[in-house]
Design brief:
Layout (H helix, E strand, L loop, with lengths): L2 E5 L5 H10 L3 E5 L3 H11 L2 E2 L3 H5 L4 E4 L4 H9 L4 H4 L5 E4 L5 H13 L3 E4 L2 E2 L1 H7 L2 E6 L2 H11 L3 E8 L3 H29 L4 H8 L7 H11 L9 H18 L4 H15 L10 H6 L3
Parallel strand pairs: 1-2, 1-4, 2-3, 4-5, 5-6, 8-9
Antiparallel strand pairs: 7-8
Helix pairs in contact: 1-7, 4-6, 9-11, 9-12, 9-13, 12-13
Length: 290
């Protein structure tokens, strides 16, 4: 069994770490808010680290699931960070959704310490993390990926190395680009159905059997119709992800016309104090239009 640390026990990391623990690996967890770490320990067992340095010391693999580029940079590079405490030959697996530039920066810095770095953002949301059926898209060296693949498998239904460092983050950008238009399309469809006087649950039951079917339709249509958004993937985080994609699009000269529009719609939702609402709250924005 590998000696593992997991840093970042948010709505995703909390459950991902649990799957690793339940698979029999020796795991230590760390979270900035220690009460969350203690809650995790109370529920699952394992050990709580008092610092990032302690979490990284003597570990074969350290998994990260944080918020933003600057969080990853701080955990990895700062005084007392992972590159000071981890041993040569060990591996950092970063499940945070970040820019591809950050992934390449961390890869280079880690390599100088003879430590592997894999960018490995995930898709599947909180439910996917709870059930252990996430999709993982990775970037980095093949040998390092093969060394952690069996661990990733305990909380994912599919994991794939997409190429060199940064490729995982670029793939996640594609995922979010596709999602943006899809969620808006579902919101518009449901709003149209309601205003046309149809039974929207029956509409969804029918069209989900055909070409319009999607994960969002299967998992979010009913809660959207109930106007319930206190769950899932927050609008604030989606705007962060779309901002990363839009910035990358300027670099590679691609056109994200729909993403630009949907990003502005999410900005409207933030103005409605909905930054913590699920991304499917695009329907509430349409319902508020006269």
């Amino acid at each position: 069994m590998k000696k593992i640390a997991f840093i970042g026990l948010g709505v995703m990391g909390f459950h991902m770490a649990a799957h690793i623990h339940n698979a029999g690996h020796k795991i230590v967890v760390f979270n900035r808010t220690k009460s969350i770490s203690e809650s995790w320990k109370l529920r699952f067992g394992g050990k709580v680290a008092d610092s990032i340095s302690e979490a990284g010391k003597h570990r074969d693999i350290v998994f990260l699931c944080l918020g933003r580029d600057e969080d990853v940079r701080s955990v990895v590079l700062s005084k007392g960070g992972l590159l000071e405490s981890m041993r040569p030959g060990s591996t950092i697996v970063d499940h945070t959704t970040t820019s591809s530039d950050l992934a390449k920066e961390m890869f280079a810095a880690s390599n100088r310490k003879e430590i592997n770095f894999i960018d490995a953002p995930v898709s599947g949301g909180q439910v996917g993390a709870e059930k252990g059926v996430l999709t993982v898209m990775a970037g980095g060296e093949n040998s390092a990926y093969k060394g952690v693949e069996s661990i990733i498998r305990v909380y994912s239904k599919h994991s794939q190395l997409m190429g060199e460092s940064g490729s995982g983050q670029l793939t996640k950008m594609v995922n979010q680009i596709c999602l943006a238009g899809l969620i808006q399309g579902l919101a518009e469809g449901l709003n149209f159905s309601e205003r046309a006087g149809l039974n929207s649950l029956e509409v969804i039951n029918v069209i989900s059997q055909g070409a319009a079917q999607s994960w969002q339709m299967d998992n979010r249509a009913e809660s959207m119709l109930q106007d319930f958004y206190d769950h899932g993937f927050a609008v604030d985080l989606m705007r962060k992800d779309l901002g990363i994609a839009l910035k990358e699009a300027k670099k590679n000269n691609s056109y994200l016309e729909v993403v630009n529009i949907v990003d502005s719609f999410y900005k409207d939702i933030q103005k409605m104090n909905g930054g913590k609402w699920d991304t499917s709250s695009l329907l509430r924005r349409l319902r508020n239009k006269k």
